[in-house]
Write a structure and sequence with these properties.
This protein is an alpha+beta fold and 273 residues long. The longest helix has 21 residues. It starts with 10 loop residues before the first helix and ends in a 13-residue tail after the last strand. The mean pLDDT is 90. Helices cover 21% and strands 36% of the residues.
Length: 273
């Protein structure tokens, strides 16, 4: 065996390594010329560019229900930090610069996390759902995604899924951030809130953007390679002219080849090729 990395020696060394990476990101941002969004408006912008909602608590086999309940608390706290934020032309929205570090002192609880491709738990767990929500809104706009970390595995069976597989993003304070830039000539506002058992979100502006978008998943199936199963599909984004409804272009944005890490017995047999 080779020599262990410093972060692998013991838990203390791991925490030191994590803090080092957090500091490195902060220093890099400080010396960059990026202008981050930090202003808010209590007034809702008049035009809804895109809206979406996702179920807060899903039935996940083998997952402690307490982690799901705590996730709701974590998302409610994050909503308070994000709701109403305004991204001006040229500004960049940063998930972690907006939400801040999730800590017990701030009220965050132990929720479900994904660590090294496996289910885990940690303070602030479940905030990926918020990042997923915002990313979905952004995918349905002309905004430029400047930082994104895809989940590489198929972590759960589809349960009331409303969006194409793989269109989420992973976040971990603060080395795995989610960021997008407002490349339009008008201010953009994000609204997020929890209501009726769902996380709700809206991307708003003062005028309609020239295009609308539709995301579709094609050729979705499962495939066995050796003794492992993989979730296969392609996700396209169709750009549609808002004036006449004509299709401007069809873009391949994701080519899924994700290892299934849940119980294979839950894979629908009719979807295996």
């Amino acid at each position: 065996m080779g020599r262990k990395l410093f972060c692998q020696i013991n838990p203390t060394c791991y925490r030191i390594s994590v803090e080092k990476e957090i500091l490195k990101r902060k220093v890099k941002d400080f010396f960059s010329n990026v202008k981050f969004a930090k202003s808010y408006s209590e007034e809702m912008f008049p035009v809804v560019i895109k809206s979406h909602s996702s179920v807060l608590v899903r039935k996940l086999q083998g997952v402690d229900p307490r982690l799901q309940e705590n996730k709701v608390t974590n998302l409610e706290l994050a909503c308070r930090k994000i709701n109403g934020i305004v991204i001006r032309p040229g500004e960049v929205f940063s998930f972690w610069r907006t939400v801040g570090r999730p800590t017990v002192k701030k009220g965050y609880r132990e929720g479900l996390n994904i660590k090294h491709g496996k289910l885990s738990s940690g303070i602030g767990g479940g905030l990926c759902q918020m990042a997923n929500m915002i990313h979905w809104l952004v995918l349905n706009s002309s905004m430029d995604v400047v930082e994104l970390h895809h989940h590489t595995d198929a972590l759960f069976p589809d349960d009331r899924r409303r969006v194409p597989f793989g269109t989420g993003t992973s976040v971990c304070y603060n080395n795995r951030d989610y960021r997008f830039r407002n490349n339009s000539d008008g201010d953009i506002q994000i609204l997020v809130w929890c209501e009726g058992g769902e996380l709700c979100g809206e991307l708003r502006g003062y005028g309609e953007l020239p295009y609308r978008y539709r995301l579709v998943e094609e050729d979705s199936h499962f495939h066995k390679e050796g003794d492992r199963y993989y979730r296969i599909s392609k996700v396209y984004r169709i750009v549609i002219d808002r004036k006449d409804g004509s299709e401007v272009r069809k873009e391949l944005i994701l080519n899924n080849h994700s290892e299934v890490v849940y119980d294979y017995s839950l894979i629908p047999k009719e979807e295996i090729r």
